[in-house]
């Protein structure tokens, strides 16, 4: 069992017999009050998000999900096609079920597909993935007036903020747990 | 690129943080407060239901300098302030660090209203020192720092922002949840806001309001929905204080937390403390507001995860 103080982004728990993943997590403590754990949880089957606030002693059943190694083949509309590396069986996962992980999927990418009671409901990514920057403003060297970050678009269409020294065409490492820039990849 | 890039990019924020600290010292020294230092490592913390101290061998790291500073007040130090590190177990989030910087100040012959005025002056002064005007931007809201700031009682806040009353919330044991979800996000968005007169059980070391014994003379300061400070008119009756500590320890016990020993030296001296008011203000939080930071991580050199 987990307690509320184990809650963090990405943790998977069972609520009303369905698997949920924590998508937003905030620790709160109103003055002289008790610790509260405010969360947004995404139902891993329906994609529907709920808000829940928990207290320190609250307990959770971990969602035990089967993982199967698969390859991401292609996207068609909001259907994402994957192939099982062992059986070559193809499966489809909807965009809602994928949630934020869709931002980090490029064709031929190897992932772990998550199954809840034999049903494919999502994808487990490595904590860090490398993706190419396809669009960002150039950096004017020595310009210190600009902010610490600038916007950039990745090959998956995902937009994020990167340090000013990152240039178009460069490969960068993303922390998939936060969706934030982690480091530049030396090629 | 520096190897520790997150640290190198915080340089400007840390320079401004240093100016904020200098601004705070300047404000109090100019007003004849004595800067004091009390031990970080103490034999026992004040028993409070929801504040857990970090053990340090058989003693504890202080969760605030409150007990020692009040002993100084009882010994005749009339105006004192301290800026120090404090530790609270398991407090970590976008607005919390388990080790953080607290500013506390105490004034004899004053009550919580005078502390509110101190806050108005202090924040304005410090903002000016880092080149900010009367208007600041925090998380998308333009906040006007000019005096007077908004004042709203806990009772009124429940009436304005929720469907329930304070008493109903306490009865249903949902006071904290309602504060965090429905009230806090509304406080201090246009002007900094003092929310005052808390239910008496939410102020273990505060004096009860003479004309309404159901509330304690305690307030919190919010700017842009962020809680910055907690101040109150001090309870100076040692018998009453001892009863409250026992009650807090009972709460601790029933929620499975360790109980703390009675701070006997503090209690023995408390009756000599003149009528006073005291307040604790989170310095990291003040830096967050003035530097428009989303996370407390952005205004400190190192977080525990980075060590």
Characterise the protein shown here.
The complex is a heterodimer of chains A (187) and B (307). With 187 residues, chain A is mainly β. Helices cover 2% and strands 53% of the residues of chain A. Chain A has three domains: 2-62, SH3 type barrels; 66-124, Nucleic acid-binding proteins (OB fold (Dihydrolipoamide Acetyltransferase, E2P)), CATH 2.40.50.140; 128-184, Beta Barrel (OB fold (Dihydrolipoamide Acetyltransferase, E2P)). Chain A has one helix and 16 strands. A six-stranded antiparallel sheet of chain A has the order 1-6-2-3-4-5, with no helix packed on it. Chain A has a five-stranded antiparallel sheet with strand order 9-8-7-10-11. In chain A, 24% of the residues are buried. Chain B is of the alpha+beta class and 307 residues long. Chain B has a single domain (5-146, 228-306), classed as 2-Layer Sandwich (BirA Bifunctional Protein, domain 2), CATH 3.30.930.10. Helices cover 35% and strands 25% of the residues of chain B. In chain B, helix 3 (66-74) packs parallel to helix 9 and helix 8 (238-254) packs antiparallel against helix 9 (264-270). The chains are: A mainly beta (187), B alpha+beta (307). The interface between A and B is medium-sized, with 21 and 30 residues.
CATH architecture of the largest domain in chain A: Roll
CATH topology of chain B: BirA Bifunctional Protein, domain 2
Q: Provide the CATH top-level class of chain B.
A: Alpha Beta
Rg of chain A, nearest Å: 19 Å
Number of helices, where a helix is a run of at least 4 consecutive DSSP H or I residues of chain B: 10
Secondary structure class of chain B reads alpha+beta
Q: In total, how many domains does the architecture of chain A comprise?
A: 3
Strand content of chain A: over 45%
Q: What is the terminal separation of chain B in angstroms?
A: 20 Å
Name of the CATH first level of the largest domain in chain A: Mainly Beta
Helix content of chain B: 25-40%
């Amino acid at each position: 069992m987990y307690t509320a103080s184990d809650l963090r982004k990405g943790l998977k728990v069972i609520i009303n017999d369905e698997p949920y993943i924590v998508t937003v997590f905030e620790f709160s403590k109103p003055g002289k009050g008790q610790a509260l754990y405010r969360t947004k949880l995404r139902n891993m089957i329906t994609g529907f998000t709920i808000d829940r606030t928990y207290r320190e002693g609250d307990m959770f059943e971990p969602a035990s999900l089967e993982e199967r190694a698969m390859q991401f083949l292609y996207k068609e509309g909001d259907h994402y096609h994957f192939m099982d590396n062992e059986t070559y069986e193809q499966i489809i996962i909807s965009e809602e079920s994928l949630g934020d992980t869709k931002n980090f999927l490029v064709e031929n990418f190897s992932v772990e597909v998550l199954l809840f009671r034999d049903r494919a409901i999502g994808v487990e990514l490595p904590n860090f993935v490398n993706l190419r920057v396809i669009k960002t403003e150039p950096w004017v060297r020595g310009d210190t007036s600009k902010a610490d970050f600038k916007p950039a678009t990745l090959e998956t269409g995902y937009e994020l903020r990167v340090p000013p020294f990152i240039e178009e065409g460069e490969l960068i490492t993303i922390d998939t747990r936060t969706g934030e820039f982690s480091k530049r990849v030396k090629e | 690129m520096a190897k520790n890039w997150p640290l190198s990019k915080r340089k400007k924020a840390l320079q401004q943080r240093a100016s904020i600290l200098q601004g705070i010292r300047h404000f109090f020294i100019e007003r004849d407060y004595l800067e004091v230092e009390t031990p970080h490592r103490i034999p026992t913390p004040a028993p409070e239901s929801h504040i857990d101290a970090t053990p340090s061998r058989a003693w504890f790291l202080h969760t605030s300098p409150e007990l020692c500073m009040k002993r100084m007040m009882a010994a005749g130090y009339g105006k004192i302030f301290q800026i120090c590190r404090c530790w609270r177990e398991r407090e970590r989030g976008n607005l919390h660090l388990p080790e953080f910087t607290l500013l506390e100040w105490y004034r004899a012959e004053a009550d919580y209203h005078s502390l509110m005025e101190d806050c108005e002056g202090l924040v304005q002064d410090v903002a000016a020192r880092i080149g900010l005007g009367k208007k600041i931007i925090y998380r998308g809201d333009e906040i006007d720092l000019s005096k007077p700031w908004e004042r709203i009682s806990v009772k009124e806040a429940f009436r304005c922002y929720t469907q329930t009353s304070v008493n109903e919330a306490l009865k249903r044991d949902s006071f904290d949840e309602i504060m965090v979800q429905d009230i806090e996000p509304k406080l201090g968005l246009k002007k900094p806001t003092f929310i005052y007169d808390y239910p008496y059980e939410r102020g273990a070391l505060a004096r009860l309001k003479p004309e309404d014994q159901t509330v304690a003379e305690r307030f919190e300061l919010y700017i842009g929905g962020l809680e910055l400070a907690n101040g109150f008119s001090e309870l100076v009756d040692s018998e009453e204080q001892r009863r409250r500590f026992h009650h807090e320890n009972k709460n601790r016990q029933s929620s499975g937390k360790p109980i703390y020993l009675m701070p006997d030296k503090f209690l023995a001296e408390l009756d000599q403390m003149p009528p006073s008011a005291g307040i604790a203000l989170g310095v990291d939080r003040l830096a967050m507001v003035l530097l428009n930071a989303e996370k407390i991580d952005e205004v400190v050199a190192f977080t525990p995860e980075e060590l």
